[in-house]
Amino acid sequence: MSKLDCADWLAIWDHSQTLPPALQTCALLAPLLADGLAGAERLPVGRRDAHLLDLYDALLGPQLTAMACCGHCAERLELNLNTADLRLDDPAPAAPELQLEWQDYHLRFRLPDSRDLAVLAQWLNNEPATDIEQARLLLVRRCVLEAAQGARPVSPEALPQGLLQALSEAMTQADPQALIELDMCCPACEERWNEAFDIGSYLLESLDHWARRTLDQVHLLATAYGWSEAQILALSPQRRARYLERVQS
Ligand SMILES: [Zn+2]
Fold it and tell me: Can you tell me the distance from the alpha carbon of 216 to that of 214, in angstroms, rounded to the nearest whole number?
C-alpha cells in the first residue's frame, strides 16, 4: 500500500471518476489486490469494505467523522469514530458459494458483490418506481445459482417469502461487514436509531477532498516557482507545506 505515491493516487482517483459509483471503490482497491480490478469487483461487499477500511487507515489515518440528521427534530449530529470501531472479526475469505436448507427447499447461492450493486443501481436509475421487493428479486436472480424444492427445480420468482427472508439473513451472517450500523442518540431530543455507515462512499469523498486540495497546492506552487506537476508531487508533504507557507505568507 505504501508503495503507491501521491501521483499514483491522483491517477487512481482520475480513473475512479470514469466508473459508475458502485464500482469506484473497486478502482481504489485494484492496485492493491493480486487479481486487480476484476478481483475487487468480485469481492463480497463486506470483504471489499474490510479492505476499504484498511485502505482508509493507511491513506488517511484511523480517525473518521460520521454525520447524521435526527429524524425526529432535525438536529445535525457528528460522531467521531475510529476505523477499529467499524471493523468486525471475520477476516476469513468468503467461500465462492454457499448452501441454504429451508423446509424442503435447497439453495446454492453466492454473496452479492460490487457488480451486483452496479447492476442494481443502474436498474433503479432506469426504473425509479421499483419497490424493495423487486430490487431484492433482482439480487436473488443474480446470486442464487440453483434452487430446488425436493428434486424439482424452482425459479427465483417462485421462491416463498419465508425462504427469501432466510436467504437475506444467511447472506448477512456470511458477510457481516457488508452492513455496519451505528447506534445513534440525539443529544437534543434523545431519539435513538441505527444509522447505516458506508465506508466506500466515505472513503471516496475523503479521497476527493484530498485530491482537490493536492491539485490546489500544485497550482499554487507551479504558478509561484514554475515547477512541473511531477516535481511538486515528488516533494515530501513536509517540504511541500514549507514552500506553501512561503508562497502564501
Ligand atoms: Zn432529535
Answer: 5
